[in-house]
Amino acid sequence: MDRHLLRRVGTVVLAASVPLAGLAATPASAAPGGVVVRRDVDGDGRKDTVSVKTGTGSATVTVDRARGRTLTKRLRTEGVPASAVWHGSAAIDGRRGAELVLVTTAGAHTLFNTVLTIQAGELRVSRTPGGASTWVTDGAYTVNVGWRRYTRDGQVFMTKRVVLREISETWSGRAVTWRWTSGGWVRSGRAKALRPTDDRVAYRYGGWRVAGLKTYP
Protein backbone atom coordinates (compact mmCIF):
# COMPACT_ATOMS: atom_id res chain seq x y z
CA MET A 1 0.00 0.00 0.00
CA ASP A 2 2.64 2.54 1.05
CA ARG A 3 5.04 1.70 -1.77
CA HIS A 4 2.24 1.82 -4.33
CA LEU A 5 1.12 5.17 -2.93
CA LEU A 6 4.60 6.66 -3.11
CA ARG A 7 5.04 5.55 -6.73
CA ARG A 8 1.77 7.19 -7.68
CA VAL A 9 2.63 10.42 -5.87
CA GLY A 10 6.03 10.50 -7.57
CA THR A 11 4.34 10.19 -10.95
CA VAL A 12 1.91 13.01 -10.21
CA VAL A 13 4.55 15.33 -8.78
CA LEU A 14 7.37 14.79 -11.25
CA ALA A 15 5.12 15.00 -14.30
CA ALA A 16 3.90 18.49 -13.37
CA SER A 17 5.62 20.98 -15.66
CA VAL A 18 2.95 23.41 -16.80
CA PRO A 19 3.38 26.91 -15.27
CA LEU A 20 0.87 27.55 -12.52
CA ALA A 21 -1.74 30.00 -13.77
CA GLY A 22 -2.52 32.89 -11.49
CA LEU A 23 0.33 32.16 -9.07
CA ALA A 24 1.04 35.38 -7.23
CA ALA A 25 2.76 36.61 -4.11
CA THR A 26 2.34 39.56 -1.77
CA PRO A 27 5.82 40.59 -0.60
CA ALA A 28 6.42 42.71 2.49
CA SER A 29 7.91 45.41 0.27
CA ALA A 30 8.75 45.63 -3.40
CA ALA A 31 12.10 46.39 -4.97
CA PRO A 32 13.22 46.54 -8.61
CA GLY A 33 13.20 42.92 -9.78
CA GLY A 34 12.46 41.44 -6.38
CA VAL A 35 11.45 41.91 -2.74
CA VAL A 36 13.06 43.10 0.47
CA VAL A 37 12.06 41.92 3.94
CA ARG A 38 13.49 42.18 7.46
CA ARG A 39 13.94 38.90 9.34
CA ASP A 40 16.24 37.48 12.00
CA VAL A 41 17.74 34.77 9.83
CA ASP A 42 20.90 33.95 11.77
CA GLY A 43 19.19 33.80 15.16
CA ASP A 44 21.22 36.50 16.91
CA GLY A 45 18.12 38.41 17.98
CA ARG A 46 18.57 41.22 15.46
CA LYS A 47 16.71 41.59 12.16
CA ASP A 48 18.70 41.03 8.98
CA THR A 49 17.82 42.45 5.57
CA VAL A 50 16.73 39.79 3.08
CA SER A 51 16.50 40.67 -0.61
CA VAL A 52 15.36 38.44 -3.44
CA LYS A 53 16.11 39.45 -7.01
CA THR A 54 14.61 37.39 -9.81
CA GLY A 55 15.74 37.02 -13.39
CA THR A 56 15.07 34.66 -16.25
CA GLY A 57 15.32 31.19 -14.75
CA SER A 58 17.02 32.26 -11.54
CA ALA A 59 16.66 34.00 -8.21
CA THR A 60 19.42 35.53 -6.10
CA VAL A 61 18.88 35.66 -2.36
CA THR A 62 21.02 38.01 -0.26
CA VAL A 63 21.03 38.19 3.53
CA ASP A 64 22.66 41.39 4.77
CA ARG A 65 23.23 40.43 8.37
CA ALA A 66 22.97 42.89 11.23
CA ARG A 67 26.14 41.25 12.53
CA GLY A 68 28.59 39.34 10.37
CA ARG A 69 29.18 39.14 6.66
CA THR A 70 26.61 39.33 3.89
CA LEU A 71 25.54 35.96 2.48
CA THR A 72 24.28 35.24 -1.05
CA LYS A 73 22.69 32.20 -2.72
CA ARG A 74 21.63 31.83 -6.35
CA LEU A 75 18.84 29.40 -7.18
CA ARG A 76 17.49 28.12 -10.47
CA THR A 77 13.78 28.60 -11.11
CA GLU A 78 11.36 27.10 -13.62
CA GLY A 79 7.74 27.88 -14.43
CA VAL A 80 7.38 30.40 -11.58
CA PRO A 81 6.34 34.04 -12.16
CA ALA A 82 8.97 36.40 -10.75
CA SER A 83 6.44 37.86 -8.31
CA ALA A 84 5.73 34.42 -6.84
CA VAL A 85 9.25 33.15 -6.15
CA TRP A 86 9.35 34.59 -2.63
CA HIS A 87 6.92 32.68 -0.40
CA GLY A 88 7.94 33.85 3.06
CA SER A 89 9.99 33.06 6.13
CA ALA A 90 9.29 31.13 9.30
CA ALA A 91 10.88 28.89 11.91
CA ILE A 92 11.00 25.44 10.35
CA ASP A 93 13.78 23.46 11.99
CA GLY A 94 14.75 23.69 15.65
CA ARG A 95 17.65 26.11 15.28
CA ARG A 96 17.43 29.77 16.18
CA GLY A 97 16.58 32.08 13.31
CA ALA A 98 14.10 31.98 10.47
CA GLU A 99 14.24 29.86 7.34
CA LEU A 100 13.56 31.43 3.92
CA VAL A 101 11.04 29.72 1.62
CA LEU A 102 11.04 30.21 -2.14
CA VAL A 103 8.98 28.57 -4.88
CA THR A 104 11.61 27.48 -7.38
CA THR A 105 9.58 25.20 -9.67
CA ALA A 106 5.85 25.18 -10.41
CA GLY A 107 3.76 22.65 -12.24
CA ALA A 108 0.07 22.50 -13.09
CA HIS A 109 -0.70 22.34 -9.37
CA THR A 110 2.50 21.07 -7.78
CA LEU A 111 4.96 23.45 -6.14
CA PHE A 112 8.60 22.68 -5.41
CA ASN A 113 9.84 24.90 -2.59
CA THR A 114 13.48 25.56 -1.74
CA VAL A 115 14.15 26.37 1.91
CA LEU A 116 17.29 28.31 2.83
CA THR A 117 18.88 28.47 6.27
CA ILE A 118 22.12 29.71 7.78
CA GLN A 119 24.41 26.92 8.89
CA ALA A 120 28.06 27.28 9.89
CA GLY A 121 28.01 30.88 8.68
CA GLU A 122 26.79 29.94 5.20
CA LEU A 123 23.43 30.33 3.45
CA ARG A 124 22.54 26.75 2.57
CA VAL A 125 19.66 24.70 1.20
CA SER A 126 17.78 23.04 4.04
CA ARG A 127 16.79 19.52 3.06
CA THR A 128 13.47 17.99 4.01
CA PRO A 129 13.31 15.55 6.93
CA GLY A 130 13.30 12.80 4.30
CA GLY A 131 16.47 14.18 2.68
CA ALA A 132 15.07 15.79 -0.49
CA SER A 133 16.44 19.13 -1.66
CA THR A 134 12.98 20.57 -2.32
CA TRP A 135 9.83 20.62 -0.21
CA VAL A 136 6.85 19.56 -2.32
CA THR A 137 3.39 20.99 -1.71
CA ASP A 138 0.25 20.27 -3.72
CA GLY A 139 -3.44 20.95 -3.62
CA ALA A 140 -5.69 19.58 -6.34
CA TYR A 141 -8.75 17.46 -7.02
CA THR A 142 -6.75 14.23 -6.99
CA VAL A 143 -3.80 14.91 -4.69
CA ASN A 144 -2.87 16.91 -1.61
CA VAL A 145 0.67 17.11 -0.24
CA GLY A 146 1.70 19.26 2.68
CA TRP A 147 3.97 19.92 5.65
CA ARG A 148 2.78 20.57 9.21
CA ARG A 149 5.08 21.92 11.93
CA TYR A 150 4.18 21.77 15.59
CA THR A 151 5.84 21.73 19.00
CA ARG A 152 5.19 19.44 21.93
CA ASP A 153 6.95 19.46 25.31
CA GLY A 154 9.48 21.91 23.90
CA GLN A 155 10.36 19.71 20.92
CA VAL A 156 9.84 20.55 17.25
CA PHE A 157 8.06 18.11 14.94
CA MET A 158 7.40 18.14 11.19
CA THR A 159 4.81 15.91 9.52
CA LYS A 160 4.52 15.27 5.80
CA ARG A 161 1.00 14.32 4.73
CA VAL A 162 0.04 12.88 1.34
CA VAL A 163 -3.48 11.88 0.30
CA LEU A 164 -4.79 10.75 -3.08
CA ARG A 165 -8.30 10.48 -4.45
CA GLU A 166 -9.07 6.94 -5.55
CA ILE A 167 -11.15 5.99 -8.60
CA SER A 168 -13.94 5.25 -6.15
CA GLU A 169 -13.77 8.93 -5.09
CA THR A 170 -12.52 8.01 -1.63
CA TRP A 171 -9.28 9.46 -0.24
CA SER A 172 -6.35 7.56 1.22
CA GLY A 173 -2.76 8.34 2.13
CA ARG A 174 -0.30 8.50 4.96
CA ALA A 175 1.49 10.84 7.34
CA VAL A 176 5.13 10.57 8.38
CA THR A 177 6.50 12.57 11.31
CA TRP A 178 10.05 13.61 12.19
CA ARG A 179 11.46 15.16 15.36
CA TRP A 180 14.19 17.79 15.41
CA THR A 181 17.40 16.90 17.27
CA SER A 182 20.83 18.49 17.53
CA GLY A 183 21.85 16.21 14.68
CA GLY A 184 18.91 17.08 12.43
CA TRP A 185 15.55 15.44 11.75
CA VAL A 186 14.93 11.89 12.98
CA ARG A 187 11.94 9.70 12.23
CA SER A 188 9.36 9.74 15.01
CA GLY A 189 7.31 6.57 15.18
CA ARG A 190 5.61 4.67 12.38
CA ALA A 191 3.73 6.12 9.42
CA LYS A 192 0.09 6.82 10.08
CA ALA A 193 -2.64 5.89 7.59
CA LEU A 194 -4.88 8.75 6.49
CA ARG A 195 -8.41 8.24 5.20
CA PRO A 196 -10.10 11.64 4.87
CA THR A 197 -13.86 11.33 5.06
CA ASP A 198 -14.54 14.18 2.64
CA ASP A 199 -12.85 16.77 0.40
CA ARG A 200 -12.78 19.42 3.11
CA VAL A 201 -10.64 17.20 5.33
CA ALA A 202 -8.39 16.10 2.46
CA TYR A 203 -7.69 19.67 1.37
CA ARG A 204 -6.52 20.56 4.87
CA TYR A 205 -3.54 18.25 4.37
CA GLY A 206 -2.16 20.22 1.42
CA GLY A 207 0.30 23.13 1.42
CA TRP A 208 2.27 24.68 4.25
CA ARG A 209 0.79 24.30 7.72
CA VAL A 210 3.58 26.26 9.39
CA ALA A 211 3.07 29.33 11.60
CA GLY A 212 4.13 32.43 9.66
CA LEU A 213 3.73 30.91 6.19
CA LYS A 214 0.76 31.15 3.86
CA THR A 215 -0.67 27.76 2.97
CA TYR A 216 -0.16 28.53 -0.74
CA PRO A 217 1.26 31.55 -2.60
Description:
The chain has one domain. It has 2 helices and 16 strands. The strands form 2 sheets. Strands 6, 7, 8, 9, 10, 11, 12, 13, 14, 15 and 16 form an 11-stranded mixed β-sheet that branches. A 5-stranded antiparallel β-sheet has the order 1-2-3-4-5, with no helix packed on it. The radius of gyration is 17 Å and the shape is globular.
Secondary-structure element order, N to C: HEEEEEEEEEEEEEEEHE
End-to-end span in angstroms? 32 Å
- Poorly predicted regions are 1-22
* Average pLDDT reading: 88
The whole-angstrom Rg is: 17 Å
Counting structural domains, the number is 1
Structural class: mainly beta
Number of distinct beta strands: 16
Portion in beta strands: over 45%
Q: Helicity, in percent? A: under 10%
Largest sheet: 11 strands, mixed
Shape: globular
**SS field, number of helical segments:** 2
